[in-house]
């Protein structure tokens, strides 16, 4: 299981040292995304979210060498106007990370009051959404990184598995996150299993160490992050990839996938 091994000071330091422009990009999209998700589906909110997403994803590396190319803003806007995509993103955004947990055997559990409260249904939904975002936001996207960045920006649910975050997970002792990570179609694929299990490890860790996490966040320059623990883990794992930084998160001995 994932454990917090750093202190609240380590959390504060990692958050404050994270690039300020990345903090701002996330905050900018979140403001618009919340309006888009929580209001009745309307063209104005879709337009604003398409523009904010396009800007943030470019700032986060899209359209650069070896990265997928973003579709034009009008195409992204058109996709976001679709009721089916809107409703699915809304449902995922309504999940608290604390709703994900593990039992002593590391079997995955979902809170019965969660919008999606069946583990198998969640697995199917998260992978389908990532594939849908890959299709409607990018041309010829084959990797997991950028759809997960988009999901993080819109919902704040879970980290984007870019190379830095994967490095942080590897340093934490989690196997399987080195090298290229292709976008999986189902949970039977290794990458699919790793994506689907991650929120459960993070949610369990958050619940175990909530007070320390919150203390570290509230003593940082970005106190609003206490409302998006998925983004907090994204930052901590990203920064943990720096070998000179104190380790913050660590996995115990792995068990087999339940």
Descriptive notes:
The protein is mainly α. It has a domain at 2-19 and 97-251. Helix content is 56%, strand content 6%. It has 11 helices and 6 strands. The protein has helices spanning 8-17, 20-38, 43-59, 73-80, 83-93, 119-137, 145-155, 163-172, 190-208, 210-218, 229-240; strands at residues 2-4, 69-70, 100-102, 108-110, 138-139, 249-251. The strands form 3 sheets. The protein has a two-stranded antiparallel sheet. β3 (100-102) and β4 (108-110) form a beta hairpin. The longest helix has 19 residues, at 20-38. The mean pLDDT is 94.
Structural class, judged by helices and strands? mainly alpha
Share of β-strand residues = 5-15%
Tell me the number of helical segments per DSSP (H or I, 4 or more residues long): 11
Instruction: Report Rg.
Output: 17 Å
State the order of secondary-structure elements, H for helix, E for strand.
EHHHEHHEEHEHHHHHE
Shape: globular
Q: What's the pLDDT, averaged over the residues? A: 94
For the largest beta sheet, what order do the strands appear in spatially? 1-6
The low-confidence parts are: none
Number of DSSP strand runs: 6
The N- and C-terminal alpha carbons lie at a distance of 13 Å
What is the percent of helical residues? 55-70%
For the largest beta-sheet, the strand count, sense and barrel status come to: 2 strands, antiparallel
Q: Can you describe this structure in just a few lines?
A:
The chain has 258 residues and is mainly alpha-helical.
């Amino acid at each position: 299981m994932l454990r917090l091994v750093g202190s609240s000071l380590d959390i504060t330091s990692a958050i404050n040292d994270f690039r300020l422009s990345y903090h701002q990009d996330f905050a900018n999209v979140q403001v618009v995304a919340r309006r888009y998700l929580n209001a009745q589906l309307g063209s104005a909110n879709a337009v604003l979210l398409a523009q904010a997403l396009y800007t943030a994803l470019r700032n986060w590396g899209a359209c650069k060498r070896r990265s997928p190319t973003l579709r034009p803003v009008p195409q992204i806007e058109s996709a976001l106007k679709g009721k089916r995509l809107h409703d699915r993103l809304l449902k995922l955004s309504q999940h608290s990370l604390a709703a994900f947990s593990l039992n002593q055997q590391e079997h995955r559990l979902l809170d019965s009051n969660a919008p999606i409260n069946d583990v198998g249904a969640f697995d199917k939904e998260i992978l389908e959404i990532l594939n849908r975002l890959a299709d409607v936001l990018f041309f010829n996207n084959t990797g997991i990184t950028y759809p997960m960045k988009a999901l993080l920006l819109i919902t704040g649910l879970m980290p984007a598995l870019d190379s830095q975050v994967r490095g942080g997970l590897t340093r934490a002792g989690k196997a399987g996150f080195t090298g290229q990570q292709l976008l999986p179609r189902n949970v039977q694929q290794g990458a699919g299993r790793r994506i689907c299990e991650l929120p459960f490890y993070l949610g369990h860790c958050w619940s175990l160490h909530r007070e320390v996490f919150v203390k570290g966040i509230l003593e940082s320059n970005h106190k609003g992050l206490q409302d998006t623990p998925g983004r907090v883990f994204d930052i901590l794992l990203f920064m943990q990839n720096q070998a000179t930084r104190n380790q913050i998160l660590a996995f115990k001995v792995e068990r087999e996938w339940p």
